[in-house]
Amino acid sequence: MRRRILLLAVVAAGATMLGVSLASAHGGSGGATVKAFAGEKMVPNKYFQDEMRFSPGTVTVTSGSSLTFTYGDKEQEPHTLTIVKRSDLPRTAAQVDNCRACEQYAAPHLKNPKAEPGPGNPIVHWTLNKGRPGLDTVGDSVAIQPGAHKRISVKVTAAPGTTLYFLCAVHPWMQGKIVVR
User: Fold this and answer.
1) Spatial CA neighbour of 34 closest among 57, 12, 1
2) Residue 90: how many CB atoms within 10 A of its CB?
């Protein structure tokens, strides 16, 4: 947990959480729209709850359609849309704190994948393709961060009938799936 907090604090100092959206190309291209919403709840002496999430949690797209991963108005933290195995999706707080898939698939986005993220080790690889170009297999990932890299477009190249599970490797409770038709 401490490493995840450090990652958020160093890479995105002064973070305010509003929204991230994953939007499709316009028209009848078979694309879709997913938005990530953010917020916080706090009950004194009980809990603090982070409400970042993708919505809807399931999106259906046509193979070959483009998705655009982008920020909302005031978002200040980095995010990824990282394809993982369904079994890699964290289901408990302990799994969120020790998300092995997050470290494995997010580290290659960094200048030095073996070092802690931060100003001296920034995101330099915005798109990671483990398979063909586009989103089609585990390990494919796109990243955004405030500034010049607030938006990235990528095609969903998985075959029709495929379901791709994704999470934000920085905030692994943000999860969803892409059903490809």
Assistant:
1) 57
2) 19
Q: Which two tokens stand for residue 2?
A: 């401490």
Query: Which SS3 state, helix, strand or coil, does residue 61 take?
Result: strand
Quote the tokens at residue 128: 């990671």
The residue count of the chain comes to 181
State pLDDT tens for residues 70-105.
776 566 778 899 999 999 999 999 999 999 999 898
CA dihedral for 123, 127, 130, 136, sign (positive or negative): positive
Tell me the mean pLDDT in the region 58-73. Answer: 82
Cβ within 8 Å of residue 149, ≥6 positions away: 123, 126, 143
Q: Please, where are the H alpha helices in the chain? A: 2-11, 93-97, 100-106
Cα distance between residue 20 and residue 52, in whole Å:
9
Is this model's pTM higher than 0.85 or not? no
The enclosing H or E element of 176 equals strand 175-180
pLDDT value of residue 166: 95
- Asked if 80 contacts 169 with a C-beta cutoff of 8 angstroms, the reply is yes
Residue 103, burial from CB neighbour count under 10 angstroms (0-12, 13-18, 19+): middle
Other beta carbons within 10 Å of 165: 17
Token pair belonging to 83: 């394809």
